[in-house]
Amino acid sequence: MLMDVTTKADEEKKKEQLIRDLSVPILTIWEKTIVLPLVGDLDLDRERM
User: Fold this and answer.
1) What are phi and psi of 43, to 5 degrees?
2) Are the C-beta atoms of 37 and 26 separated by less than 8 Å?
3) In this structure, what DSSP letter does residue 32 have?
4) pLDDT at site 1
5) Alpha helices, DSSP H only, in 1-49?
6) Contact of 21 with 30, CB cutoff 8 Å
7) Are 29 and 20 in contact (CB under 8 A)?
8) Any idea where the domains of the chain sit in the sequence?
9) What are 1-49's pLDDT values in tens digits?
């Protein structure tokens, strides 16, 4: 039972870190133009998004 609680806590910390890593600021430059930083590796799967 203790392992389950510890595992859940670790998974929650990993999830929170992933959310922080994926969160990026979005800046409005002009009416229909935004800028956002690209974080991480760019590959074909991410380019198609």
Assistant:
1) -135, 180
2) no
3) T
4) 56
5) 2-22, 44-47
6) no
7) no
8) 24-49
9) 566 778 888 899 999 888 877 777 788 889 888 887 777 777 787 666 5
